Amino acid sequence: MTVFDLDRYVVREYERFARSFTNIHAKDLKSKIADRSVAVLKRIAAQFGSAATTVFSTRSAIAHLIRDVDLLIGTVLIPGAATPRLVSAAMVKTMRAGSVIVDVAIDQGGCCETSRATTHSDPTYVVDGVVHYCVANMPGAVPRTSTFALNNATLPFVLAIAGKGWRRAMSDDPHLAAGLNVHEGHITNPAVAAALGVRTLPIAAAYGEAVARVS
């Protein structure tokens, strides 16, 4: 079995799932991970060794890899921006009949040209013999667990805003400041503005130079 993925954590979770619910042994799972960062590829190679093959991500490399995959997992994310369509409809036509695409990036538009958002009640559809799983808000399948995870990640920011006020909280934390997308009806995130085709309000104009210095 071959997996082509764009995120090493998804590969690891898939392999764990496959070993738990099938008779497939780890040695039969061939994971191929594509990324545009050489540093990331080196780190993945060191972490997984021969269990994963790393590939520098290009259009031609993706087109070559997906011809033989059983499962393609797309986890592309550009914060604030629409996901680029890395897999064209023509590429999907070259995939094996019965193979599966899981487009985790569907919340940002999906990284496959043939992807469209589906629901937990009707999760899949077939295009050119390839099964597509493109459920929007996939963590909703485990609502309690995902809620705890979200709360753990966001609670420190909520407490900071409540205790300091939003201007001071953002001034003290560049990560929080970078999360500001809209202020008084104006978009402050350049990626969001570009995706919507509107102008960006500079951060300094949105909430003062003190915060702009740390963003």
Question: What is the topology?
Answer:
Elements: E1 2-5, H1 8-21, E2 30-35, H2 38-48, E3 52-56, H3 59-65, E4 71-74, H4 89-93, E5 100-103, E6 124-127, E7 130-133, H5 143-164, H6 166-172, H7 174-178, E8 182-183, E9 186-187, H8 190-196, H9 203-207, H10 209-212
Helix pairs in contact: 5-6
Characterise this structure.
The protein contains ten helices and nine strands. It is an alpha/beta fold and 215 residues long. The chain folds into two domains: 2-140, Rossmann fold (3-Layer(aba) Sandwich), CATH 3.40.50; 142-212, no CATH class. 23% of the residues are buried. The model is unreliable at 209-215 (pLDDT under 50).
Described by the principal axes of the CA atoms, the overall outline is: elongated
- Examine the coordinates and then state which fold CATH places here, giving the name of the CATH topology of the largest domain: Rossmann fold
The CATH homologous superfamily of the largest domain is termed NAD(P)-binding Rossmann-like Domain
Helix and strand pattern: EHEHEHEHEEEHHHEEHHH
State the major sheet. Answer: 7 strands, mixed
State the helical fraction: 40-55%
